Amino acid sequence: MSDNTSSRVLVAGATGYLGKFVVKAFKAQGYQVRVLTRSEERLYKEGPFTAPPLVKSDVDEVFVGEITKPQTLAGIMDGVDLVFSSVGISRQRDGLSFEQVDYQCNRNLIDQCRDSRVKRFVYVSMQGAENIMQLAITQAHEKVVASLKSSGMEYRIVRPCGYFSDMGALYDMAKSGRAFLVGDGTNKMNPIHGQDLARVCVEAAEGDELEVEAGGPDVMTQREAAILAFDVVGKAPKITVIPMWLARGLVKFIGMLSSQFGDLAEFIVTAGEIDGVGPKRGTTTLRSYFEGMHAANAKS
Questions:
Q1: Are strands 61-64 and 32-37 parallel, antiparallel or unpaired?
Q2: What is the reported pTM?
């Protein structure tokens, strides 16, 4: 354990898939951990796609506030040395846009760092952003990066190649008996487990590398990942391909009904046609992740 007992980290996004792992990782490394949340109760519940529930000993301080409302954040940076944020839209429920959440909420945190003793800000963006700058989600993430670079604070950017939580959808489809892929499924990827990525985030916070890309140990295509999920659930693979021309048409239709859902759909479709491969910093295999989900499902 590093001697970080006098260092306080603020974790924003602590109720999300990555955030729960990050809280535990910083605590294990000896930090005093303050978390920002709208609901303290949610901290102690199991998170999405096998993210662990936190326990009281994982957290030293709970700051209850609404990150979309800066007036509720007064004093949040008092005594804080390091800020970590994985705040962003993972499920489109509140009718808010990527600009309003992924950018503005993080911008509110950056603004709160003024006149504080915060030394460094660690932010989770995405790998390969330069190739998909036409997307609203990418533009929002990279506006945060630009704000950090011009803030005068030290910063670290972590760029995962994708999350195992996203792969959980493949397991759910395989369990139901049929998987749907956007495009032919030949794009390559190596997503990373949340626990592995949390370790990378702590290492980035303490290291000298300004931007850190992180992937898991397995490089495979989307189709191969789907077949793996079927193998774990013990079913013959049944895969339906949604052609890109049809997927693009659906995106335009969804966008006419809701710009927020349209932006999310465009991101999902684009992810189905580009590669997302980076350094193999994770050690947890996708098979073991699927097997864990399957074992948990069998108990429920």
A1: parallel
A2: 0.92
